[in-house]
Design a protein that fits this description.
The structure holds four protein chains of four kinds. Chain C has helices at residues 24-39, 55-58, 85-98, 118-123, 138-153, 157-172, 185-189, 218-224, 252-265, 270-273, 284-293, 302-307, 324-328, 335-348; strands at residues 5-12, 48-52, 78-81, 103-111, 193-196, 198-199, 208-217, 229-238, 276-278, 361-367, 374-381. By secondary structure, chain C is α/β, with parallel strands linked by helices. Chain C has two domains: 5-117 and 207-229, Peroxisomal Thiolase, Chain A, domain 1 (3-Layer(aba) Sandwich); 121-204 and 232-381, Thiolase/Chalcone synthase (Peroxisomal Thiolase, Chain A, domain 1), CATH 3.40.47.10. Chain D has one domain (41-174). Chain D is built from three helices and 14 strands. The chains are: A alpha/beta, B mainly beta, C alpha/beta, D mainly beta. Chains in contact: A-B, A-C, A-D, B-C, B-D, C-D.
């Protein structure tokens, strides 16, 4: 198997509304990624783009629309898609391109401009549900999270005030992130007192809607060693989807994520994830989701993640820092771009280039993960330096 | 095939109707903002990449070939051009048939590698040819609102 | 390349204008059942799956959610490519080369008949700032491209019409095809003008259907199939998406995708080394334009060659023996799937009355339709 | 190469929605008509037809013996065609639920003025296999007294109003 490394990264500011078109956003991130490793567009053999529903940016076949701005002009260019998991599927899909031996370098871009959907993206969230058996009931995205959170809490006996600590931790971490949309020092009480959206989900349990883009450059070993002294290797990749009949699954545990994580760990030779992984970026569009995913990634035993959170294990200076970037709750959630932002955070952490966000102890192994669709997708990448 | 049971009667067959209810607002963007502000002044803006020797119309913040930043390379390109290709279209964007067809053309703005997709006016379809020189006809100043429709159409120029 | 990869199973429902008796789930299930049966495997033996879909064509805002069940891919590695079927094929091919697994499944599906506002959906792919406010039909883009193509190459409307006549006739002998017909050039030329010079008959009508294929690495392929069809070269490319700056006369995307595939397959003289081709003909002129872009014909040669019957089943270089998009139907993201399927059937000698004599290498090409400039090419050998 | 404030400063220009609506910056509006008629197929077609009759129908897999709702023509786990049709009850238990203060457009309900929160739930249907749930609404219940395992029953629309849709069941209500 060819070794493939991340050698450069770029990322835009995340805001609720930006002036830039989706193309212009994608270009900013892609350009920064190339500049970061002093590569030119002509050094790039192929391009992949990860972006979530067309219904956000409001362009049918938006992968085509975004192609030139992602560096895809007259190059092999391909878009991939697993809803919210697309961001972390991006390095995986880029990895195929390079590991296959067909290409030596790959530019990986992820973009999302949710603010195009005006007055709100509700129609997009409504139409993720089954058109015949569910949409006539007018469900919304928040419900499905609340449904899952409720099941997760009642199964393990978790308390809302403990889960709220995720928002406190991530928003604080985000204060050190230059792209962050919603950083801040808040308290558990702030979360509990924020307006109820759909019990058990309050306003501050939710990540914002955002506009933003992110990009990384992948290279095969012989190129990677030439362009950087600190290549970060993609050592494990995993992804899986569960059934679309989401009401027939027990939502308390993300089986799809465990399947994806086992695939990635096996490839990376990881036997005891909680010991061998030093820093993690689990997907946190909602507070409980970070804990749900920490359990799915087998970084905490089932039913024990909340105690570890309360004990400070997941703090930036804890034993197993999670979302040191500030996560989606703090940095923002331009769906696919947010997933790739998480990969970039692990990349920077392993290069000890995360600045004020740097976790102590020179980490050597990290994992980034995203989730998507109807509580259904797990995408996992294991990185090492 | 592959299924054990299939419909045996046409009258049993059914469908479920629905839609994706969405509406959008798109910002013109960094380059677009500049372009449409100039359109309101009756001018057309392009962006020049010197190393690729390309002039984009409409302007972009980037060169798609070399990824150079072009934001300080916006240039005015004039309002004249040539018909690069054209068609007589009887259909609207939603597929409905139109009584009066419109002449749609790609106008290659002189001295550039880009142009605009727009209508041709003040000309009969059978008089149009590829390479025909044309110029932009703008709405009157008070009517312009920073849109591609501030150009009414292109007409033959002498 | 160190590993060889073959198609060892191909299943389809066939293609019809409407499929009112089954949902998208059953449609894919049928194609998958046939593909797995042909390969002699069950879904549990598959290492990873690739689905092909575009949200607005399925009517979901996140269509990939509904991909796993009908492929038997629940809790398995599967992702979606919003591209052409041949993109997905390339993605699965790269997974095998990467060492992710030995057996991959690729799926594509069209329920075009379920889209009630199809033209609006295609319009929705245009640039929202510069193009959409004109409220012009996407067919105007095809009309303009056709006009420029005829202008640059000297091809005639009659030669384009001949493509329609040929493909619809070929489709009569293809039991999978939904739009076969016996017509003449006059019929095409006299049909209603949509966007001059494009007429109603120059536009391929759409079809429903599904295709599922099983790919395997060499050793596995030889074990699973007596007639493995080898992927010798595959390529994909995207030109600029902007209408304003693109090259209107030539299909550069097809040229670049073909060059990539030829290089991989070690092909230097495509016209000689390839026996026949299934080429995207969503609009009649596209078949001619693509033939020239892929260097199977010189510029300006495709029209006359077609007029002389050179691309007929019995011609010098058969093109679209299946009937193409004009005869089988426009399948949107599945267009490439149908093309690959026909090449596989020809190379296996299973193409029935349209079977070509002693063919060993075939080319399948696709294009993503208006307003894109994305093309894919795959070269297969038996 | 740390990514710093300096790097990202000019990558995106922050606006408020009022900058766009107030035309401080230029924009274009668009409302696409994205309409469909999805073929139900034999499984969902029968499901909807039986809902019109005031009944809930499921389908059984002969191999894993799951009685599945909504019914499907094939078992996605065993990868084989399903077997017999089975009528299940219109009662069930609450698996998990939500007390929602927002509707599907994320508009806040006027709870202060007495508008009842929306209470969607996953309801495991009696007669189907364990864990087989459907999404539906709960009503005629104090939202804060819903609990896991609560027994509920479907409240149907009158026969003449039923059209063959999931909404032929108005909602589920507690059995006590």
């Amino acid at each position: 198997m060819r070794r493939v490394a991340i050698v450069g990264a770029g990322l835009t500011k995340f805001y609720r509304n930006v002036q830039e078109t989706p193309k212009e956003l994608a270009y900013e991130a892609a350009k920064m990624a190339l500049d970061s490793c002093e590569m030119k567009l002509s050094d790039i053999d192929c391009v992949v783009h990860g972006t979530a529903p067309d219904a956000f940016d409001g362009v049918h076949m938006k992968g085509e629309y975004l192609s030139d701005a992602s560096g895809g002009y007259r190059k092999p260019y391909m878009r991939h898609f697993v809803g919210g998991g697309s961001g972390v599927l991006s390095p995986i899909h880029g990895w195929f391109h390079v590991a296959s031996g067909l290409f030596d370098t790959c530019l990986v871009v992820a973009e999302e401009k949710m603010s195009c959907a005006y007055p709100h993206p509700a129609g997009a969230f409504l139409t993720i549900f089954d058109h015949t058996t569910e949409q006539p009931l007018y469900p919304t995205l928040i419900w499905i999270f609340a449904i899952e959170m409720n099941r997760f809490m009642t199964t393990h006996g978790y308390r809302k005030e403990d889960i709220a600590l995720v928002a406190v931790k991530n928003k604080k971490n985000a204060m050190d992130h230059p792209s962050a949309q919603l950083p801040g020092e808040i308290t558990v009480q702030d979360v509990l007192n924020s307006e109820i959206m759909a019990w058990p989900v309050n306003r501050l349990d939710i990540s914002p809607t955002s506009d933003g883009a992110a990009a990384i450059v992948l290279a095969a070993e012989h190129v990677a060693r030439r362009v950087t002294e600190k290549p970060i290797w993609i050592d494990g990749v995993g992804w899986a989807l569960d059934t679309a009949y989401w009401c027939t699954r027990d939502l308390y545990y993300p089986d799809y994520l465990e399947v994806a994580a086992r695939q990635a760990y096996k490839m990376a030779g990881i036997k005891e994830p909680s010991k061998e992984i030093h820093v993690a970026e689990p997907y946190d569009p909602f507070t409980y989701k970070e804990l749900h995913h920490i359990e799915g990634l087998m970084l905490a035993p089932r039913g024990k993640s909340v105690q570890m959170l309360v004990d400070g294990v997941f703090n930036r200076d804890g034993n197993l820092p999670t979302s040191p970037s500030g996560g989606l709750l703090g940095v923002g959630n331009p769906i696919a771009a947010a997933g790739l932002m998480k990969v970039i955070e692990i990349f920077l952490q392993l290069r000890t280039e995360a600045g004020k966000r740097q976790v102590p102890g020179k980490p050597t192994c990290g994992v980034a993960q995203a989730w998507g669709d109807l509580m259904q997708v797990g995408t996992v990448v294991v990185l090492r330096n | 095939m592959a299924l054990i049971e299939r419909y045996q009667k046409t009258t049993d067959i059914s469908y479920w109707p629905g839609q994706i209810p969405m509406s959008y607002i798109y910002t013109a963007g960094r380059a677009g903002e500049k372009f449409f502000r100039e359109i309101m002044n009756g001018r057309i803006l392009g962006a020049r990449c010197d190393s690729c020797e390309i002039t984009y119309v409409p302007p972009r913040t980037y060169c798609e070939k070399c990824f150079a930043r072009l934001e300080d390379r916006y240039v005015e390109v004039g309002t004249k051009g040539q018909v690069h290709t054209f068609t007589l279209c009887y259909q609207s964007f939603d597929g409905t048939r139109r009584e009066t067809p419109s002449i749609v053309a790609i106008i290659r703005i002189d001295g550039t590698d880009g142009g605009l997709v727009h209508w041709l006016g003040e000309v009969e379809f059978k008089e149009v040819y590829i390479g025909m020189p044309v110029e932009a006809v703008f709405k009157s100043e008070g009517e312009r609102e920073g849109s591609i429709l501030d150009v009414k159409y292109f007409k033959p120029s002498r | 390349m160190c590993k060889r990869v073959a198609i060892v199973g191909a299943g389809t429902t066939g293609f019809r204008a409407t499929t009112p008796d089954v949902s998208y789930r059953e449609l894919t299930y049928e194609a998958a059942t046939k593909a797995y049966f042909e390969a002699g495997i069950g879904p549990k033996e598959v290492d990873a799956f690739v689905a092909t879909s575009e949200d607005f064509l399925e009517g979901y805002s996140i269509s990939d959610e509904y991909s796993p069940d009908q492929l038997g891919a629940v809790l398995r590695p599967i992702y979606t490519i919003p591209g052409d079927f041949i993109h997905s094929l390339a993605s699965a091919y790269m997974m095998i080369l990467s060492g992710i697994g030995n057996i991959m499944v690729v799926q594509g599906m069209s329920k075009a008949s379920n889209m009630l506002t199809l033209d609006e959906m295609v319009s929705f792919a245009m640039d929202p700032i510069y193009n959409r406010p004109l409220k012009e039909s996407p067919h105007a883009v095809a009309g303009m491209e056709m006009a420029r193509f005829l202008y640059e190459t000297g091809a005639t409307r009659k030669q384009c019409a001949q493509v329609v006549v040929k493909n619809k006739r070929n489709a009569l002998n293809n039991s999978f095809a939904g739009h076969g017909a016996l017509i003449d050039c006059e019929y095409v030329l006299n049909s209603q003008v949509i966007s001059f010079p494009l007429t109603q008959m120059d536009i391929s009508p759409h079809s429903d259907g599904a295709v599922v294929m099983v790919l395997a690495e060499e050793n596995t392929a030889k074990r699973l199939s007596e007639k493995p069809i080898w992927i010798r070269g595959i390529g994909w490319s995207t030109d600029t998406p902007g209408l304003e700056t693109r090259n209107w006369g030539e299909a550069v995307y097809a040229q670049m995708a073909a060059e990539m595939a030829y290089k991989m397959a070690g092909i230097r003289y495509p016209r000689k080394e390839i026996d026949f081709a299934e080429i995207n003909d969503e609009f009649s002129y596209k078949e001619l334009q693509h033939l020239e872009a892929m260097k199977i014909c010189k510029k300006g040669e495709a029209g006359p060659l077609t007029e002389m019957g050179g691309t007929e089943i019995k011609g010098e270089f058969p093109v679209n023996p299946s009937g193409g998009c004009l005869g089988v139907g426009n399948l949107f993201e599945l267009n490439g799937g149908h093309k690959v399927l026909e090449v596989v059937r020809q190379l296996r000698g299973e193409a029935g009355k349209n079977q070509l004599r002693s063919v060993t290498t075939g080319l399948a090409q696709s294009w993503r339709g208006i307003p894109t400039t994305t093309g894919t090419v795959v070269i297969l050998s038996n | 190469m740390e990514i710093t404030e300096k790097h990202v400063a000019e990558t995106a220009t922050k606006l408020s929605i009022n900058d766009i609506l107030g035309k401080k910056v230029l924009s274009v509006k668009w409302e696409p008509k994205l309409k469909y008629a999805w073929d139900n197929g034999p499984a969902l077609g029968r499901y909807l037809a039986e809902l019109k009759n005031g009944k809930i129908i499921a389908k059984k897999c002969d191999k894993c013996h799951r009685i599945m709702i909504p019914p499907r023509m094939f078992c996605e786990l065993c990868w084989r065609p399903t077997g017999e049709w089975v009528f299940v009850q219109d009662t069930g238990i609450v698996n998990t639920w939500v007390v929602s203060y927002v509707d599907w457009k994320a508009t806040r309900l006027d709870i202060q003025r007495g508008v009842r929160p929306i209470t969607p739930a996953v309801i495991e249907i009696d007669g189907a296999s364990k864990g087989m749930g459907i999404l539906h609404h709960l009503d005629e219940v104090d939202p804060w007294k819903i609990y896991r395992g609560m027994k509920v029953r479907a409240v149907w629309k009158p026969a003449e109003e039923r059209i063959g849709a999931i909404t032929d069941i108005k909602y589920f209500k507690p059995m006590e």
